[in-house]
Amino acid sequence: MKKSYKKIIIENVKTIIIALLIAIIIRSLIIQPFYIPSSSMEPTLLIGDRIFVTKYSYGISKHSFPFSPNFTSHRYFYETPKRGDLVVFKTPADNRTDYIKRLIGLPGDSVQFINGDIFLNDKKIERKKIDNDIKIRCGADREYKTNIYQETLTNGTSYITAYNSIGTLKNTDKYIVPTDHFFLMGDNRDCSTDSRFLSQVGYVNKINLVGKANLIFFSNDTLISPIIKFWNIKKSIRLNRFFKSL
User: Fold this and answer.
1) Distance from first CA to last CA of the chain, Å, rounded?
2) In a domain, 12, yes or no
3) Residue 104 lies in a domain
4) How many C-alpha atoms does 221 have within 13 Å on its Cβ side?
5) Which residues are catalytic, by number?
6) What are the helix (H) ranges across 95-159?
7) From CA 6, how far away is CA 9, in angstroms rounded?
8) Residue 64 falls within a domain, yes or no?
């Protein structure tokens, strides 16, 4: 016996709804892809990188869900981030825009630049110069020369950073990270709006954490060839960055 058109339509609608719910659950609670649109995390992350972010790494808040529905002011199943994590978060300025930066300061920590070095809790962060005068991007339309360093935090986490070779940020006041907040910075130190800029980003509340970046799964230089211009993608594809762990 043939099904009626009405039953077929109802079954198809149910299937679509279930598929959407499953997709929302995966995106909200498990893993979500993100696109890197800026140069603030170079050389670690490049414009055009596409990354996977695990949403469960720090627990669940309203910002885990699409459009950040205001149904709670708490974070559930909370796990404290670790120094050196690459953290995606909603900017405190609007609670809507996604940023990605590296976590440097935990609640109660002090962070300060002195003569170009970073002091965490009054101890200088260890760093070793790797290269000089390396050009990286600052914004979409310009490059500048940087000195490249490997920095190592007190927990042993190491990562690569870039500092303007002809004049980096020398000195700041001491930042004291409030309770339940974090201090995050871009690896492209002199081309990043981050927690050093208190009126624009400042300290990030644990509620605003979205997840932890873990993997680059695709990368193409969109400034050379946007992905929609698929006929030019060979010029911009970065095969060496596919499936690169972060």
Assistant:
1) 56
2) no
3) yes
4) 12
5) 40, 101
6) none
7) 5
8) yes
- Chain centroid to Cα 226, Å, comes to 21
Can you tell me whether residue 64 is helix, strand or coil? helix
Number of domains observed in the structure of the chain: 1
**In this structure, which amino acid lies at residue 191?**
C
CA 219, 136, 201, 56 torsion-angle sign: positive
The letter for the amino acid at 16 is: I
Q: Which residue has the tokens 């499936």?
A: 243
Q: pLDDT by residue (tens digit) across 15-45?
A: 899 989 888 888 888 999 999 999 999 999 9
Q: What is the pTM of this model?
A: 0.89
Task: List pLDDT tens digits, range 171-197.
Answer: 999 999 999 999 999 999 999 999 999
Instruction: Please list, residue by residue across 154-169, b when 16 or more beta carbons sit within 10 angstroms of its beta carbon and e when fewer do.
Output: eeeeebebbbbbeeee
Kindly state whether residue 207 falls inside one of the protein's structural domains: yes
Q: What is the CATH number of the domain that holds 168?
A: 2.10.109.10
Q: Are 150 and 159 in contact (CB under 8 A)?
A: yes
Domain range for 237 is 34-245
125 DSSP 8-state letter = P
